[in-house]
Write a structure and sequence with these properties.
The protein has four domains: 112 residues; 74 residues; 207 residues, no CATH class; 177 residues, no CATH class. With 683 residues, the protein is of the alpha+beta class. It contains 23 helices and 15 strands. A five-stranded antiparallel sheet has the order 9-10-11-12-13. It starts with a helix and ends with a strand. The longest helix is centred in the N-terminal third of the chain and has 68 residues. A hairpin with a 5-residue loop joins β4 and β5.
Length: 683
């Protein structure tokens, strides 16, 4: 054995043989002393660094012994050899030493963890104490701030100034020897004086209350007396009704209507006042009436009450329960919102314009509360039944009767720019889909109601009576003219459908005595059909055919010649004259584009319309144009050259006297009629 191994073995034995800690105790059955080995006591005496060095030495010694055993076995030593067994014993000693060091290390680790845990508990306890102290500090600070912010009730009382207090208060309350030097006493004294003043005022209030009751009793006695007079006054008013009717002074009806008018919305009220004033001053044939649910209008004008009865609360709860049971779909909600958005005021205004011929124009004005616009519906009634005319079906309809009363005022879209954003919320795409039920929101209707919608939305919508008054007279005249023109057209259409062109005696001089061409057909057509015609392309390209106009087809015949005329009739007739486009079927198809004479015929009817106006206001312009068209067709056919190869009489013999049959390189024909000479000439 080497010296190094011997030294290590001796050191290990010394370590193993160190004196253990002995605890003396007494057992339960054995009275003798018992010695117990305690590693924890030994752990306190050992140095961790020394244990670490010992651990390294044991590991090195164990590794050396293992290598030596390996060498011995490699050299042929057997397992039972004494030298191998000795090295195994030494290795076991090193291994036992390592196990002991391992136990000590685990014990040190446990002790360190326990100490750390104890330290953490101390820290947690100290932190909890700190939090408690901080909470107490915060609580004290809140209490201090409450005390500093405390306001006494007397600070809310508006006390009299100090100078006035010292002047008016008696000495037993003011106590100047105390209050001038002590603010607290001064405040108490001022409060005592305030209490004294309030007691005096309470006594005055009681006296005033008794006086008020006496006066109220006298007022009630007078009211009873006045109430007893009401039946007598009503009897007098009923007795005076025949006198009112005879003198055309309906005081009672006017009074009731004025009372109802108080509940009209502002735009309808402005229209009512201005129309009533205009009727009294300028137009005795203008009548006004108010219709609708007055009670509902009164409920709208009342402000909502804060407190409601128990019954109303229970009804509201029942409605809420019903709505909870029936969950409306999204489509149902949108329909409800649309109906609410388009809701009309319960009161409406009816304006009647009577004409001399007995016809009456009824205008029904409505106010859409959420959209803040006025709408109107129209109806015409006549004293006699109108002759039924198929082509006159759209003349007196509410949708077309008032269209374009002013230029480009079609009444299809709302004039309020704010409505576009309201429509987007409830899914309304186009307001024109609802005008049939709600009425047309023409701009002149808004003007009559005093509504002004500025282009700049920042200005806001306002209602003004001056705006209504400035347009009232001109609008009433236009309405009367529109009704008269439509009634005149209605009568003319009834004759035209029977191939009769009515010409008044005032217009007989515009045409020759003999007109051979005759009206064969007069029918109505649509805007789409009109645009599809090849000979109306120049009119549609110029933008003279609009969807608000009325369209008709006129056929004039003479012999084998057939003249078709497509007519555009503006809603503002006769201010805007009808427009004719011609196509002739005779020896082929001809139109204004291919025949200069047809273009000249169109000019005679369209351009020189002032000659055909007739007596003012020109309601006979359309029939005069058709008559002129028949005359021009006669001239066109009679002045047309005849083929010499054809024998027999001429198809269209000359009946008209013409100075020259044709003129110029375009071979234009003489379409101008000269009265009273009775001949035709070129223009």
């Amino acid at each position: 054995m080497s010296d190094a191994l011997k030294k290590r073995k001796a050191k290990v034995l010394r370590t193993e043989g160190s004196t253990p800690e002995v605890k003396r105790g007494r057992g339960d059955g054995d009275p003798q002393d018992v010695c117990v080995y305690n590693e924890e006591v030994e752990l306190d005496r050992r140095d961790p660094e020394q244990d670490y060095l010992q651990y390294k030495e044991s590991c090195e010694g164990l590794a050396t012994l293992m290598s030596e055993i390996k060498d011995l076995k490699a050299n042929g030593a057997k397992d039972g050899c004494a030298e191998v067994e000795q090295k195994r014993m030494q290795s076991s000693i090193h291994f036992m030493n390592l196990k002991k060091l391992n136990r000590l290390a685990h014990m040190r680790l446990k002790r360190g963890r326990d100490q750390t845990h104890e330290a953490k508990q101390k820290v947690d306890g100290l932190h909890l104490q700190l939090q408690n102290l901080l909470y107490e500090v915060m609580h004290l600070q809140k209490e201090i701030s409450k005390c500093l912010e405390f306001k006494s009730k007397h600070e809310e009382i508006d006390l009299v100034p100090e100078e006035e207090f010292h002047q008016e208060a008696p000495p037993e309350i003011s106590r100047p020897h105390l209050t001038k030097s002590d603010n607290h006493q001064l405040t108490l004294a001022r409060l005592d004086w305030e209490l004294e003043q309030r007691k005096r005022l309470a006594e005055k209030y009681k006296e005033s209350q008794s006086t008020k009751e006496k006066i109220q009793k006298s007022i009630e006695v007078k009211k009873e007396h006045l109430t007893s007079l009401q039946p007598g006054l009503n009897a007098i008013m009923q007795a005076s009704l025949p006198v009112q009717q005879y003198l055309a002074m309906p005081f009672e009806q006017t009074q009731k209507q004025t009372e109802v008018a108080r509940h009209l919305p502002p735009p309808l009220y402005v229209l009512f006042v201005q129309a009533n004033a205009y009727g009294q001053a300028c137009d005795k044939n203008l009548n006004l009436s108010i219709s609708g649910d007055v009670d509902e209008a009164k409920a709208l004008s009342k402000p909502p009450e804060d407190s409601q009865d128990d019954e109303s609360d229970s009804d509201a709860e029942e409605e809420q329960e019903k709505t909870k049971r029936r969950r409306p779909t999204t489509g149902g909600q949108l329909d409800d919102k649309r109906r609410e958005m388009l809701k009309r005021h319960p009161l409406s205004l009816c304006l009647e314009l009577k004409s001399k011929d007995g016809s009456v124009l009824h205008l029904f004005f409505y106010y859409l509360m959420n959209l803040n616009i006025l709408t109107v519906k129209a109806k015409v009634s006549t004293s006699t039944d109108l002759i039924t005319a198929i082509s006159a079906g759209d003349l007196l309809k509410s949708e077309t009767l008032l269209s374009c009363l002013y230029t480009n005022d079609q009444g299809r879209e709302t004039p309020n720019p704010a409505n576009r954003y309201q429509f987007d919320k409830v899914g309304i795409v186009c307001f024109s889909d609802y005008v049939e039920d709600l009425g047309h929101p023409y701009m002149w209707v808004q003007t009559l109601g005093g509504l002004h919608f500025p282009k700049d939305t920042s200005e806001g919508v306002h209602v003004g009576s001056k705006l209504s008054a400035s347009q009232m007279e001109s609008t009433m005249k236009l309405l009367r003219g529109r009704v008269q023109s439509r009634l005149a057209l209605h009568k003319q259409f009834a004759s035209l459908e029977h191939s009769i062109i009515p010409v008044s005696s005032e217009s007989q001089h515009l045409f020759p005595g003999k007109i051979i061409s005759h009206l064969a057909r007069w029918t109505t057509t649509t805007h789409e059909e009109y645009m599809d015609l090849p000979y109306t392309r120049h009119v549609t390209d110029a933008g003279l055919a609009k969807d608000t106009d009325l369209y008709f087809m006129c056929v004039v015949e003479r012999g084998t010649a057939r003249l078709q005329a497509a007519v555009v009739l503006s809603p503002r007739y006769p201010e805007v004259s009808p427009l004719f486009s011609l196509s002739l079927s005779w020896k082929g198809e001809r139109s204004g584009r291919t025949d200069d004479n047809l273009r000249a015929m169109e000019s005679e009817v369209n351009v020189f319309k002032n000659e055909l106006q007739g007596p003012r206001p020109g309601y006979q312009l359309l029939t005069n144009q058709i008559s002129r068209l028949c005359v021009c067709l006669d001239v066109y056919l009679e002045t047309e050259g005849q083929d010499d190869g054809v024998e027999g009489p001429r198809e269209f013999p000359r009946e008209k006297m013409c100075l020259r049959t044709v003129r110029g390189p375009n071979r234009l024909k003489p379409f101008k009629y000269n009265h009273p000479q009775g001949f035709f000439s070129h223009r």
